[in-house]
Amino acid sequence: MSTNPTRTAVTPVTVAGLGMMGSALASAFIGQGHPTTVWNRTPAKYASLVDKGATGAATVVDAVTASPVVILCLSDYEAVRGVLEPVREHLAGRVVVNLTSGTPQEARETAAWAAQQGARYLDGAIMVIPPMVGSPEGLFFYGGDAETFKTYEQTLRVLGGATLHLSEDHGLPSLYDVALLGMMWSALAGFLQAVALVSSEGIPAQEFLAFSGQWLDHAVSPMFPDMARQIDERSYATDISSLNVNKDAIAHLVATGRAQGIGADVALPIQALIERRVAQGHGSDSLASLVELLRNPSA
Questions:
Q1: Number of domains within the chain
Q2: Largest Cα–Cα distance of the chain, in whole Å?
């Protein structure tokens, strides 16, 4: 099956789940001229979308049968099954695109269930906030049948120009999702600790901001490629920054924070990892070697 650009350019779609993100998804389709049907347990949520040109579905059956592509953006996978189970006989031949957040296992189980109903299923992960939906840089990951993705790729690209099919494995988008969110939370937590530290001396967060951005861009992010190489090769020799050096440095961070009267909640788990790895005889290794403790927590 090959992509038909004319057909996919105006593919009718249904969006089920109209929270902030679901409403943004529907708005993007409406804005690009796709016939868009919307459904939500609370019908009042689709009033503004109907004003923009969407068709409001009174029931899930109406929503599912209105379009060949049904996009779900719900609270969790339990909600997904709760919506689809009662209309399972209407799913055969349709493309179900699940953009609900969850775990890789949930994605794979839902894919298997959808296949039993005769549906073509793509599981996806949204890596943008609602205002970025529809932007050229909007990143969406998809997993599932590559031919199905190819057929509807241009339709899905309406949601984000950086849309990417990762694998036939339905679980990989969720894995990438939580991995990248983990990076985000860690970075934000580090920023908050840093701000708490400098603000203990009356320095405004906005004044410190200029230095934090430059530091991440020019000192931290450039470390990632070499760290990734070391991790893949499992070779952690370094002449730049060893765990022994970082053991002393993070001790200074913890001690300074305590002296300034702020919490050390962010730094302590990292300090514990470094000290544990050093105690195992890897003090001359790089920071990248901490991944071995994360890969094998019982080591």
A1: 2
A2: 66
Contacts of 180 (CB under 8 A, 6+ apart): 127
CA distances from 297 to 87, 232, 289, 294 (A): 43, 18, 13, 5
State the pLDDT at residue 9.
Answer: 62
Q: Tell me how far CA of residue 134 lies from CA of 37, 65, 124, 140, in angstroms.
A: 18, 25, 15, 10
Q: Are 219 and 241 in contact (CB under 8 A)?
A: no
Name the residue range of residue 232's domain.
200-295
- pLDDT tens, 121-142? 999 999 999 999 999 999 999 9
List pLDDT tens digits, range 151-197. Answer: 999 999 999 999 999 999 999 999 999 999 999 999 999 999 999 99
Q: How far apart are CA 275 and CA 273, in angstroms?
A: 6
Residue that terminates a domain, selected from 117, 149, 168: 168
Which strand (E) or helix (H) includes residue 144? strand 140-144
How long is the chain?
A: 299
* N-to-C CA span, the chain: 49
CA nearest to 117, candidates 81, 77, 66: 81
Contact call for residues 247 and 267 (beta carbons, < 8 A):
no
Res. 298 pLDDT band, cuts 50 70 90? confident
pLDDT at 194: 96
Q: Is the pLDDT of residue 299 over 90?
A: no
CA distance linking residue 42 with residue 28, whole number of Å: 21
Record the pTM. Answer: 0.90
Nearest by Cα to 60 from 83, 80, 42: 83
Co-location of 162 and 25 in the same domain: yes
Cβ 111 vs Cβ 137: under 8 Å = no
Measured CA to CA, the distance from residue 25 to residue 15 in angstroms comes to 8
Residue with tokens 């970075």: 187
